[in-house]
Design a protein that fits this description.
With 211 residues, this protein is mostly helical. The chain has helices at 8-28, 35-42, 46-53, 56-79, 85-101, 109-117, 122-148, 158-179, 183-197.
C-alpha cells in the first residue's frame, strides 16, 4: 500500500520521483517504463517507491494526477482569460507556440496516457476521464463567457461546441506529434473556432437617419 509524504522533504522527494516517471513514460510509454528505470533515473530505493506508491499501478496513478494538474493548470489559466474573440485566438496561439517549442514532440500527456490505459485499466480510465471532464468544463466556461458577452448566439449548443474544441486539441496534437508539424494543430484549432464563429452574433445594421 502506498503512503503519503508527511514531511516537506518527503513531499519534495515524492514529487521528484513522479516528475521523473512522467518524463520517462512520456518518452517510452507506460509499458516501456519499469520501476527499475524510475529508480535509476531518480536514484531512489525500492523501499521509497513502495512507501510512496505501493507498486507500478500506484506510480502510474500518481503520474496521471501530476500530468493532469500540470496540463489543466496551464489550460485553466489561459481559458479563464478568454473574454472575446481575440482572447480565444491568443489561447489557440499559445497552444501552437508551446507545441513548436517542443518541436511538435510529446503530444498531449493526458491523451497519450488515455490511449495507452483506457482499455486496460478501469480505475485509471476513470481518472483520465475526470481529467478530460475538467478540461471540458474550462473550455465550456470560456465559450459561455463569449455567449454572455454577446459574441455567441444564445441558442448555440455550447456542449457540442466544447466537445468539438477538445477533439480538435487532441486530434491536432496527435497529428502534430506524428508529422512533427505544428501547422496541423493550428488547422484543427482554426476549424473548431470557425465552427464556433458560425454562431457569432453579427452586428446589427445601423438605422438610416430620416431626412
Amino acid at each position: 500500500m502506498s503512503g503519503s509524504a508527511s514531511t516537506e522533504q518527503g513531499r519534495a522527494t515524492r514529487l521528484r520521483i513522479v516528475a521523473a516517471a512522467a518524463g520517462l513514460i512520456g518518452e517510452r510509454g507506460v509499458a516501456g517504463t519499469s520501476l527499475d528505470d524510475v529508480r535509476a533515473a531518480t536514484r531512489s530505493s525500492k523501499s521509497q517507491l513502495y512507501h510512496y506508491f505501493g507498486d507500478k499501478h500506484g506510480l502510474v496513478q500518481a503520474v496521471i494526477d501530476h500530468q493532469s494538474a500540470v496540463v489543466l493548470g496551464a489550460q485553466a489559466e489561459a481559458l479563464r482569460a478568454v473574454q472575446d474573440w481575440d482572447d480565444l485566438e491568443r489561447w489557440a496561439d499559445g497552444m501552437v507556440a508551446a507545441t513548436e517549442q517542443r518541436n511538435s514532440r510529446g503530444g498531449c500527456p493526458i491523451g497519450t496516457l488515455a490511449a495507452a490505459l483506457a482499455d486496460s485499466d478501469e480505475r485509471l480510465r476513470a481518472a483520465l476521464s475526470d481529467a478530460f471532464t475538467n478540461w471540458r468544463q474550462e473550455i465550456g466556461g470560456a465559450l459561455a463567457r463569449l455567449r454572455d458577452n454577446g459574441l455567441v448566439a444564445p441558442d448555440a449548443d455550447l456542449e457540442t461546441l466544447t466537445t468539438m474544441m477538445l477533439a480538435a486539441i487532441q486530434g491536432g496534437l496527435l497529428l502534430a506529434k506524428t508529422s512533427r508539424d505544428s501547422t496541423l494543430l493550428r488547422a484543427a484549432l482554426d476549424g473548431a473556432i470557425a465552427q464556433l464563429q458560425a454562431h457569432r452574433v453579427r452586428d446589427k445594421p445601423r438605422a438610416r437617419r430620416r431626412r
